[in-house]
Every structure is written in structure tokens, then in C-alpha cells.
């Protein structure tokens, strides 16, 4: 099945919504040419013995007025952070995350971002925090971060009554090399080349549209060719400007031959693969939903 309006000699795998959360490391061949993917839930193999514990006090069904538990007041859930990742944008580093507060009492609260050996800053919510709805961001100057050094960041939200989320962690490495895409069309054969990547490096681009028809990508697809200098395991990390959108990452060699994909609902998308030095590879960035946005592909 080919993409609508997409003339590549191969098709990106038709990823139906129920499958998209479990195909992070499954290639296009496995999803398409090889007849699909089976999925077994993971089991940890542990068992527990059933134990009866006698209640010694407190409320039990059948006791008290109308047989109802005592009124302990309204629930007050803690804020929930997810999808925390860094995205380099010119002279800035944008830190994207989603913030979900079930009882809507974040207004008057705060968000704290700290990076080891760099800085720590607390921001009033929502006035000093970018974005809207659950998709939020903070921006720091890129000069704060040394080149080629892994910087470990920690994010925490505190609502207006003092309930704190757990800390979410992200790693940011400022690359020594960056290049913009030069594609001439949305096909494998018309992919542009950025040449040899100096690792860690950053390839940037923008999808004009991200959409699907339930089984196929129907929006923009970006293809980019590149080589790496050394034969070893590399990490490809795809981020994009709006973490509420959903972009996917595919890697191919000449042929084209599918090598791997990260096509989940996660942010960011990540591939860890052994690559051969001075061999040309092609990545495809496809948008499943959320509209168009700028993207960054970090190669480490």
C-alpha cells in the first residue's frame, strides 16, 4: 500500500493506530513485505500468593451511615509530566514537555528546570511557561551548554497547593555540526544529501503537513541522505516543535532496503543501530498527526 501522493519505490509502512504504540524498533519489511507483526505482552514471570488479611479497624462495607465510606474531601491529583526533550533552535535550546493536571490547579504553581553544571530556574505557571494546553516549553540560550558534553536535565512541576510531580529527565548534547535538508521532492529518489555528518551532528527540516487516513501517512514526508565517519553503533533522535504532534522516523540503505523504524506515539522517536562508515543512508521523517512543524534529527 502506497502513501497517497507519494511516489517512492517503497511505501512507508501503513501503521494502523492500534499498532503504533508497539512498533518502535520494527522495520518496514516486517510491517509490510513480511506480512505484519505479532505482539505478545511482556510477562515478568513472577507470581504472588493470595493472602487474606483480617481487617482490624476503619470503615468496611455495611458499616456506618448508608454503608458509604467516610467523606475525605475532593481528590487532589499531583501534576503529571511527560514527553520531556530538548530541541535545538538556532541560538536557543527549547525544552518541550507535556503537563497534565487533572484538577486544573497548576495556575499559581511553578515549573523548575535544572541542568547539572549549567543552571537552575523556576518559572511561574502559566505566565512564564511557553505553549498552551498540555504542550509546554521553556527556552534557554544555547551558549549555556558546552559542545559535545552530555548535559542531564531535570524537570518538576508544583501545583498551586504544593503538590509536586516526579522529576522527568532528559539528556541534551550540543552538536558540533549541523545542516539543513536539501530535498527536492517527497520521494526516496529525490532525497537531498547533507553529506558526511560530524558526530554529534544535527539535521534540521520542516514538515509542511502531518496527517493520516487511519492506515497511511497522507501529509508531507522528508527524505535525507547522509554518511557517518565511523563504523559503530549510532543513535538517531528525532524531535519536533510540538510534542502533541506525532512524527515518525525510518532508516533505509540503498535499494532501498529497510533498516529500522521508530514509529510510536512517543516523543522523541529514537533509533539505536550499528552503521557502517562512509556508506550512504537515507532517513524518512513522516508526520502521522498534529499538522506541520520544524524537526531536528540528532545523530550521535
Task: Write a concise keyword list for the protein shown above.
300 residues; mainly beta; Jelly Rolls; Immunoglobulin-like; five-stranded mixed beta sheet; 1 helix; 18 strands; 1% helix; globular; disordered N terminus
Structure, explained:
The protein is mainly beta. The chain has two domains: 20-33 and 176-299, Jelly Rolls (Sandwich), CATH 2.60.120; 80-173, Immunoglobulin-like (Sandwich). It contains one helix and 18 strands. The protein has one helix spanning 28-31; strands at residues 80-89, 92-100, 110-115, 119-124, 130-132, 135-141, 150-158, 168-173, 177-180, 192-196, 201-207, 221-227, 232-240, 246-253, 257-262, 269-275, 281-289, 293-299. Strands 9-11-18-13-16 form a five-stranded mixed sheet, with no helix packed on it. A five-stranded mixed sheet has the order 10-12-17-14-15, with no helix packed on it. A four-stranded antiparallel sheet has the order 1-2-6-5, with no helix packed on it. A hairpin with a 3-residue loop joins strand 3 (110-115) and strand 4 (119-124). The chain is globular, with a radius of gyration of 23 Å. The two termini are 33 Å apart. Residues 1-10, 13-19 and 21-66 have low confidence and may be disordered.
Amino acid at each position: 500500500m502506497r502513501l497517497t501522493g507519494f511516489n517512492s519505490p517503497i511505501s512507508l509502512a501503513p501503521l494502523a493506530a492500534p499498532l503504533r504504540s508497539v512498533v518502535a524498533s520494527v522495520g518496514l519489511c516486517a510491517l509490510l513485505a513480511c506480512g505484519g507483526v505479532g505482539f505478545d505482552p511482556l510477562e515478568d514471570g513472577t507470581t504472588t500468593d493470595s493472602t487474606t488479611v483480617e481487617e482490624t479497624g476503619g470503615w468496611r462495607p455495611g458499616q456506618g451511615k448508608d454503608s458509604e465510606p467516610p467523606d475525605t474531601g475532593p481528590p487532589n491529583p499531583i501534576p503529571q509530566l511527560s514527553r520531556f526533550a530538548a530541541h535545538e533552535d538556532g541560538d536557543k535550546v527549547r525544552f518541550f514537555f507535556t503537563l497534565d493536571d487533572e484538577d486544573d490547579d497548576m495556575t499559581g504553581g511553578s515549573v523548575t528546570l535544572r541542568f547539572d553544571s549549567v543552571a537552575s530556574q523556576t518559572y511561574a505557571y502559566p505566565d512564564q511557561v511557553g505553549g498552551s494546553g498540555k504542550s509546554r516549553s521553556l527556552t534557554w540560550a544555547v551558549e549555556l551548554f558546552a559542545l559535545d558534553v552530555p548535559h542531564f536535565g531535570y524537570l518538576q512541576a508544583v501545583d498551586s497547593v504544593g503538590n509536586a510531580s516526579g522529576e522527568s529527565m532528559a539528556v541534551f548534547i550540543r552538536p558540533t555540526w549541523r545542516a539543513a535538508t536539501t530535498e527536492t521532492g517527497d520521494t526516496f529518489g529525490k532525497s537531498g544529501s547533507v553529506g558526511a555528518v560530524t558526530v554529534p551532528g544535527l539535521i534540521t527540516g520542516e514538515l509542511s503537513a502531518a496527517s493520516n487516513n487511519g492506515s497511511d501517512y497522507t501529509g508531507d514526508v522528508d527524505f535525507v541522505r547522509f554518511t557517518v565517519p565511523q563504523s559503530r553503533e549510532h543513535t538517531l533522535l528525532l524531535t519536533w516543535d510540538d510534542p502533541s504532534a506525532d512524527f515518525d522516523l525510518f532508516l533505509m540503505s540503498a535499494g532501498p532496503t529497510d533498516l529500522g523504524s521508530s514509529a510510536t506515539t512517543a516523543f522523541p522517536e529514537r533509533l539505536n543501530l550499528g552503521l557502517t562508515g562512509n556508506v550512504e543512508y537515507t532517513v524518512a521523517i513522516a508526520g502521522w498527526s498534529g499538522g506541520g512543524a520544524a524537526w531536528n534529527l540528532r545523530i550521535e
